[in-house]
Amino acid sequence: MESNKFTAPGFFGHANKFIEAYHATLQPICKETGLPPMAIDILMFVANNPERATAKDICALRGFKSGIVSVHIERLVSEGLIKRCEVPGDRRKTLLACTESATGIIEKGRALQKCFADNLLTGLSESEIETFHNCLHAIGKNIDAIRKNGMTAHNSKQGDSDD
Questions:
Q1: pLDDT for the residue numbered 162
Q2: In 58-136, which ranges are E strands?
Q3: pLDDT per residue over 114-157, tens digit each?
Q4: Is the Cβ–Cβ distance between 45 and 61 less than 8 Å?
Q5: How many CB atoms are located within 10 Å of the residue 11 CB?
Q6: Which one of 6, 15, 39, 55 has the largest count of C-beta atoms within 10 Å of its C-beta?
Q7: Of 92, 113, 126, 93, nearest in space to 48 by CA
Q8: What is the average pLDDT across 91-104?
Q9: Tens digit of pLDDT for each residue in 25-39?
């Protein structure tokens, strides 16, 4: 079996560092608003994904626990930054929407998100960035397949044993 340079712990380590760096990037807005990074993260998710802005989508796409998301949504609603909207045809579903009061925070957040992305890609050539994008796309598809179907026989034989 060919040795793989990538391991599950390595991927988890990078994922955790990514989240920590992203939340550190949001600190100026956190200090200005008094909101924790995860609340700002949720607000930005709602702003950037208005068609998928439900608590369920936030949990599924950002990997947050539902109880934590609920607490932050409640705080964002009470601060007047997001509102709950009924979804026509599905009374069980609640879509979240940003309010006018959130506009300044969202503008600053988007500027910080762009700066964060630019900093992550510093030192990479355009072709390396394109290759990286293609790799992330393929990995994303593989993750979706694993989440839906579990490990395939091919993947389980190659899996690493470190947790």
A1: 46
A2: 82-87, 90-98
A3: 999 999 999 999 999 999 999 999 998 998 898 888 886 555 54
A4: yes
A5: 13
A6: 39
A7: 113
A8: 94
A9: 999 999 999 999 999
- CB–CB of 73/42 below 8 Å? yes
Q: Is 58 exposed, middle or buried (0-12, 13-18, 19+ CB in 10 A)?
A: buried
CA distance 87 to 97: 12
- With a CB cutoff of 8 Å and minimum separation 6, the contacts of 155 are 146
As a whole number of angstroms, the distance between CA 76 and CA 70 comes to 10
- Phi, then psi, of 97 in degrees rounded to 5: -140, 145
Kindly tell me the burial class for residue 74, based on how many C-beta atoms sit within 10 Å of its own C-beta (0-12, 13-18, 19 or more). exposed
Query: pTM here?
Result: 0.81
Burial environment of residue 42 by CB neighbours within 10 A (0 to 12, 13 to 18, 19 or more): buried
DSSP H/E element including 76: helix 66-78
Sign of CA pseudo-dihedral 74, 48, 103, 20: positive
